[in-house]
Amino acid sequence: MTIDYRPPAGPDEVQAAFEVFLRSMIGLDLPVVDASTITENGRYIAAFEGDAVVGGVDSYSGWLAVPGGARIPHAAVTHVGVLPTHRRKGVVRNLITRQLHDIAARGEIVATLRASEAVIYERFGYGIASAGRSVVAHRRRIRLRDGVPAGGKVRLVDGSADTDLLRSIADQADWPGAIARPAGWWTLRRLATQADPTRHLVAVHSTGGVDDGYVVYRPENTQTWFTDREKTITVTDFIATNDTARAGLWRHLFSLDLVDRIVFEAVALDDPLQLAVTDERALELGPAHDETWLRLVDVERALAGRTYGRAEPVVLAVVDAQIDSNNAAFEVGPDAVRRSAATPDLTVDVATLATAYLGGTRWRQLAAAGRVDPGRAEVISRLDVLFGVDRLPFSGTAF
Ligand SMILES: CC(=O)SCCNC(=O)CCNC(=O)[C@H](O)C(C)(C)COP(=O)(O)OP(=O)(O)OC[C@H]1O[C@@H](n2cnc3c(N)ncnc32)[C@H](O)[C@@H]1OP(=O)(O)O
């Protein structure tokens, strides 16, 4: 089989590539869409056998917020799929290798994705950099503690009409792991909401007249809504840019009439809700699951993009099988990051470095797991001070 790799030429080929993605994903429930309205011009790369598309990878441009608050240029990788008839012949390897070089050539420092399976992407230098979990709140048992902020004002809005409003709030996200939500993401969200017969409710929070958070929720089992003893709503999107907004949105959800269960689809592992309630067993915490798979495309600029705790610098030798320019030693310290000719303190592969980059995994854990040399205990301690964060990374955006 001869496969050519190139960007799709025009909307018909983009559509064909997107259809390949949908076929490869089997159970992905998306509305019928014109793919050119949800993709970014020039970013799709497809695999062709003759005229037929047999695989593809895609991405969106944007930013990733990193420790210290900077937003660094970021590619959100998505729509990865190969037809079942063309699997395990190296098609995705060729596509992803080409895509990584394309992302690097665009000057984007990092790429992230959400993985359908956990065994695919490490070989391409991606590591798990943030995690989340679901939480079920039993409304009738929930009481917020006295010290929880009162919150500001909450108003209901028409979520499909007011995409611009929600977008302007989501654009304020600055926590480590937050990403820009591309135009195509918002278009797909609007189409999916419109195609869903169940009403999605949207409440916007504001403090002193400034919109600073919102929540989107929808009822489950609406066919049996009035006879259901466990009326459930699912929170599909929760954006709070500060603690007041978060508390105000909790108060809105926990004061809804009719509702028994509130399912948060995904929250950060250190989400403060647990600590804010008088009865922790009013919450069921779901298992942790991987969220952000991070690829450091330009290691030097990525390392320089975040801030560090105060410790003596460490020289890290990075090993990268795909991007040659990353194979170097970098001195990482609180005042500067620079390439170094000194003897490295530790060697780390680029995927493992990605797991530690946002602070979601400590170096001590990596050493205990044998992912880096556990013999360098003093270096590991220094790295944990340097990379330490006060908030676990979390994106909160599925794409
Ligand atoms: C960000 C996203 O879009 S996530 C969505 C990803 N897409 C899907 O899960 C859809 C269903 N799956 C598929 O379309 C394909 O199986 C893909 C895209 C996962 C892999 O495509 P392929 O062309 O078969 O992969 P390819 O042959 O290039 O394999 C490259 C390597 O990954 C391995 N690999 C690929 N897929 C898998 C998998 N699902 N499980 C385990 N190993 C895998 C291959 O064995 C090969 O290993 P090697 O490095 O030892 O040689």
What does this structure look like?
The chain has 10 helices and 19 strands. It is an alpha+beta fold and 399 residues long. It has 3 domains: 4-130, 3-Layer(aba) Sandwich (Aminopeptidase); 132-159 and 200-289, Gcn5-related N-acetyltransferase (GNAT) (Aminopeptidase, 3-Layer(aba) Sandwich); 298-347 and 361-387, Nonspecific Lipid-transfer Protein, Chain A (2-Layer Sandwich), CATH 3.30.1050. The strands form 3 sheets. Strands 7, 8, 9, 10, 11, 12, 13 and 14 form an 8-stranded mixed β-sheet that branches. The mean pLDDT is 97. Acetyl coenzyme *A is lined by residues 24-25, 77-82, 87-93, 113-117, 119-120, 123.
What would you say about this model in short?
It comes from Gordonia paraffinivorans NBRC 108238. This protein is an alpha+beta fold and 399 residues long.
